[in-house]
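Hi all, posting the design record for the shared folder.

TITLE: backbone redesign
STEP: 1 of 1
STRUCTURE INPUT:
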């Protein structure tokens, strides 16, 4: 596959979604009293955990894997 088809610049919609999602989650975490760096870290952790859980769920055909990962988030 040509590199241009897999480069992140060729996927503006998903990138924009994740940028908005991370920004929103950072704001939520900041309102709960976290500082800017901790809020950013918490937002990235949440998104990465959920994305990874979705990959496992689909690959393994087991929704319980997603549920277990999501249950560990607060």
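Okay, here is what came back for every position:
SEQUENCE:
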């Amino acid at each position: 596959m040509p590199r241009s088809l897999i480069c992140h610049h060729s996927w503006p919609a998903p990138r924009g979604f994740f940028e908005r999602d991370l920004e929103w989650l950072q704001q939520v975490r900041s309102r709960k009293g976290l500082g800017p760096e901790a809020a950013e870290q918490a937002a990235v952790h949440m998104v990465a955990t959920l994305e990874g859980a979705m990959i496992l769920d689909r690959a393994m055909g087991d929704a319980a894997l997603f549920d277990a990962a999501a249950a560990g988030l607060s």
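COMMENT: The CA atoms of residues 46 and 74 lie 9 Å apart.
Let me know if anyone wants the other runs.
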